[in-house]
């Protein structure tokens, strides 16, 4: 069986390295905070001005003043700090954030990322995505492998407006994990119950190796 959203988030949490600063994007990436491995200390940064995000609150314990960039209620930690957006983006643009875990609509085989706009559909704007992919040291994308029509979202070239060119390092989908390498995409692992042949068949982009 392919991974569900929670399993994808748990797999993405395995990418976290001890002592690093990490930004979690909107959607499935926000779930990563619930799966940080034991013994790994990371500081989560939200571009709306918060450093040190805790996990989602239990029902009834929400604080409407504590939200992430996706306007979801979150919790604070003893070391949490708050600041304005200018300082937040200064951290991002200054290369202080080690990793961004983001969602996507499309990823190309060369690491191009499209995750902010679908033409003719109402969107809230790019937000911090363009700054994140340009400023962080590593970009991990978490997304469904195909769209609702069953068409691959891992493409030879993106068809939607780009957020960044050649910025994606690793892609985690409901079918498995792939790295962007010279010449295309390399399979790192398949989701439990998914064969390599199934993953290849669901991928339009070039798979090398």
Automatic annotation (TrEMBL):
InterPro entries: 3-oxoacid_CoA-transf_B, CoA_trans_fam_I, NagB/RpiA_transferase-like. GO terms for molecular function: CoA-transferase activity. SMART domains: CoA_trans. It holds the Pfam family CoA_trans. It comes from the Bacteria. Keywords: Transferase. Belongs to the 3-oxoacid CoA-transferase subunit B family. PANTHER family: KETOACID-COENZYME A TRANSFERASE (PTHR13707), SUCCINYL-COA:3-KETOACID COENZYME A TRANSFERASE SUBUNIT B-RELATED (PTHR13707:SF57). This is 3-oxoacid CoA-transferase subunit B.
